[in-house]
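Figure caption, in words: inputs first, then the predicted bound structure.
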Amino acid sequence: MSSYVSALDLFSIGIGPSSSHTVGPMRAARAFAAELVDGSHESPAARIAVVLCGSLGATGIGHGTPDAVVAGLRGLDPETCDPDDVPGGWAGLGDGTPVRLTGRTGTLDLTVATADVRLAPLTRLPGHPNGMRFTATDGAGVTVLERVYYSVGGGFVLSETELAQAEAAEAALVAAERGGPGAPAAATVPDDVPYPLVDAAGLLEACAATGLGIAEVAWANETALRPEAEVRAGLDAIWATMSACVDDGLRRTGTLPGRLNVRRRARAQGERLEALDAAGGETTIEWLQAYAMAVNEENADGRRVVTAPTNGAAGIIPAVGRHYLRTHPELAGDDPATAEERRRTMRVYLLTAAAIGALYKRNASISGAEAGCQGEVGSACSMAAGAVCALLGGTPAQVENAAEIAMEHNLGLTCDPVGGLVQVPCIERNAIAACTAVSAARMAMQGDGSHVVSLDTVIETMRQTGADMSTKYKETSEGGLAVNVIEC
Ligand code: SF4
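Bound structure (iron/sulfur cluster present):
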């Protein structure tokens, strides 16, 4: 068991608009369908009921959660599915439609109705605000299989049992770190990576002791878990998907789904900026914003995106990475040496961002339903700040400083998506956070890495602030802009 969160898990290729409300529920439904199909049960399943609880029930419609559940039951995988195959699946069930559930060993045909997938915003399951209950019953109404899953942020899904195991393992690690009577020795807590990355202080200690950079420490961990070629290919695929998402968002026009009728803006902004560039104007920050909006418009449209570390915050890391490449023309070009140097650069960028993101996931939260938007956009901003600081030549201490500055000024940020859609304020918020990330990195590069508030302190402050935050500011659309914007 590892306390380390791999970059290849933290950055997962999927579809929009939400990692916790779309990707996670699709994965949960897919896992349930596979278990139902592949398992041996006393009587055959005749009916399925799915209850989407808490935050999933509150904003599930706007986030496409019921559609994602139906797609998952059908066996669609968020990484490989055609995004066009997901929307409309739930409403299309009507009073009952045959659905082919897919397992590893075969398929099972059941009739599922729209009413079989139910939203229950006032029901909160004990493990996490994003809980789902899947129940299969036989013809007599007797339960054949029942599972509870939690979508814990960033597309990660845990069953009830896995959540309990994860909490027990985490408690053992914390007890080992703190010591004291009865606590296991840290060395007895198993880990399968050389640098478990429990906190930022430990990360900096590892860098100081080895002379490695943060990306090199992360690389050592990644290659302890997977073969080198697989890690390299995985990181390259993640950056290629992020970059393609920027390009797709700068190309597409139209109006985003949902009753807000939000028009896409990235393409028009890109065209204006190209004209300004041609006239010799200064457009650097505007391009950075356009990149972020392009990704978040793709996400809001349910297109292919990379969770980074969530879908709502998916624009920040790609935008800051593209901004770095745009301002380093020596990395442009398709000759093999330049292309390889560009890939190598973006591996450093992603590994550094993931090492920082893993600290947020482990010690606070990357879930808007748990910590508000500080957990999503704040974490992404911090990851991007540290990662681009590393590319600018920052020492590990400067990288840690950049990540800390970026989160410090996102503390308290609430999640209040208007209409339950990942559009307002999410799209612009990513653009602004991308600018904050670059500013934080530049500020950190002006110092020597020494500073008053540590990254660990700001992560713990984010956790406490999230715990104190009213539920209405945690992806429920019951507070903030979500109740003060008049929807026409
Ligand atoms: S407000 Fe922030 S946390 Fe909430 S849905 Fe939008 S991006 Fe995600």
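The radius of gyration is 22 Å.
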